[in-house]
Amino acid sequence: MSHPGWPATIELDEIRLRPIRYADARAWREVRMRNRSWLLPWDATVPPGVGDRPASFRELVALLRRNGRNGAGLPFALDVEGRFAGQVTVNNVVRGSAQMASIGYWIDQAWAGRGVMPRAVAVVVDHCFFEVGLHRIEIAIRPENSNSLRVVEKLGLGEVGFAPRYLHIDGQWRDHRIFAVTREEAPAGLLPRVRNLSGG
Predict the structure, then answer these.
(1) Which end of the chain has fewer CB atoms within 10 angstroms, the N or the C?
(2) Mean pLDDT for the stretch of residues 131-159
(3) Phi and psi (nearest 5°) for 75?
(4) Domains of the chain
């Protein structure tokens, strides 16, 4: 079964977004291990007593691929200059009267501050609007996560709320700031806002 806009591959300059695959295992582990201290404070966790996170990369990919097949998500791997560098995942796709989803992302610290993630998120949001047919995209960010806050700042996303103890992150329920954009707010998409971004 296929769903609007998935599977998909999106290319922009040195960036390539494509479905995550089992063959990414070695590169994924290398990047995650090398960036462990950089990523750990922002990693989603599962509260005690409600199940476990996937125990292996293979289980993670199986879950993400299942979400892609059933229309619940769009699990993109992020390649930069031909090498695996992170993920941009569209989660919690809601159809019906909502037509919305949320986006989460992470990147190898080696590429941080170079404008990669704002451009990657921009093209994924545009894909969600113009190919998947969604109306609203949300991004939830911990107030302490200055790097991720800079991404939404560069994208020009408006802050729409504050959610106490919103998501289980790094072993605790954490407060989040909520940012969102609708198609009406970005009729030409987000890419024009960051098209020439190269860091800073």
Answers:
(1) N
(2) 97
(3) -90, 95
(4) 10-194 (3.40.630.30)
